[in-house]
Amino acid sequence: MHQGFPKTRYQNDFKCTIERSRMKPGPKQNRKTSISYINVTGTAANARLEIAYPDFAFIDYMNLLKVDGEWKIVSKIFYKKTKEEK
Q1: What span, in angstroms and rounded, lies between the C-alpha atoms of 53 and 36?
Q2: Cα dihedral: 35, 39, 42, 44 (round 10)
Q3: What SS3 state is found at 53?
Q4: Is the pTM of this model over 0.85?
Q5: Torsion of CA 15, 58, 32, 44, to 10 degrees
């Protein structure tokens, strides 16, 4: 599914949770989104996403909880990385 990311039973659940959390759709963006990792312990998890644009990338860290059988994003922080940064 994502390069360098071992396939787990959680990938589809997280992808659906992240897609459902998006704001109202707007015009198509020139970006690529990938999940770098997912760490899960019981009903708690965190994930690192990279949303790459031509000139910069957002690095998102999301904390999730499984509530009533569904993963919910409970917090998110991000960093805007320029192309010059490695």
Answers
A1: 16
A2: -70
A3: coil
A4: no
A5: -10
Q: Structural domain boundaries of the chain?
A: 11-24+32-82
CATH architecture, range 11-24+32-82: Roll (3.10)
Asked if 70 contacts 56 with a C-beta cutoff of 8 angstroms, the reply is: no
Give the separation between CA 66 and CA 44, rounded to whole angstroms: 7
The percent of residues above 90 in pLDDT, for the chain, comes to 43
- Which token pair is 14? 């997280």
Nearest to 13 by CA among 82, 66, 57: 66
Torsion angle of C-alpha atoms 31, 35, 4, 86, degrees rounded to 10: 60
How does DSSP classify residue 23?
-
